[in-house]
Amino acid sequence: MITSLEGSWCLVLGASSGMGLAIAHEMARAGVSILGVHFDTTEGQQKAAVAQEEMRAHGVEAHFFNANAASARTREELLPRFEELTGGKGVRVLVHSLAFGTLLPYVTPDGEGSLTSRQMNMTLDVMAHSLVYWTQDLFTAGLLRKGAKVYAMTSAGGARVMPHYGAVSAAKAALESHVRQLALELAPSGIAVNALRAGVTPTPSMERIPDSERLAEYAKDLNPHRRLTRPEDVAEAVSLLSRTDSSWITGNVIGVDGGELLT
């Protein structure tokens, strides 16, 4: 049955920019109150504060927290706040949109400037493993209930490689594996877990990839729609897929790319 999202809550990890921000805005327009976690400098915090007020203009609650979403201490401190703020309703939608990792190569001719174990571990912990830890803690706290939806943002990099993307590619592959396992274990509770595979999307994290402009032009030429994926495309998918209590669509990598991979 299709249901209204109005009056529910959405937790966005990585809420201050890119896909996370677009999803928060889209959900707020649908009448969903927003909990946002982001990790920013002063400029980023100011932008997050503006976004928070824009969401509140839709008549919903919006509470942003500037904290490291990959930290166990952050979860420990914020979960009681989330319980209090949601007033017993729990979190209807959890969005994992954390894009912070190293872009260093695995191998260099002289060994200088190549990936270290610390950087590899950090990338996978932030971009993949933290999904598991947040889901565990939210479920244990009773904040994820029957009908809840969990979304992780992946990319074609989970199965393909390109220069500078090795650690992130590994993280995306691990993330998709975590999605399948969480889907299996949460199915008896009626909670759906899926990964959304966006096409090449202009976001701050993409801009950090070397030669990203050439990649964007290549993807645009390939896409049947002759344009890149926009953060708003992904946001609309989250809103659409969340409008049901069913957990029958679960454990998938769902393409939100306008057919980019078809060509």
Automatic annotation (TrEMBL):
It holds the Pfam family adh_short_C2. GO terms for molecular function: oxidoreductase activity. The keyword Oxidoreductase applies. Keywords: Oxidoreductase. InterPro entries: NAD(P)-bd_dom_sf, SDR_DHRS6-like, SDR_fam. It comes from the Bacteria. Belongs to the short-chain dehydrogenases/reductases (SDR) family. PANTHER family: DIHYDROANTICAPSIN 7-DEHYDROGENASE (PTHR43477:SF1). This is SDR family oxidoreductase.
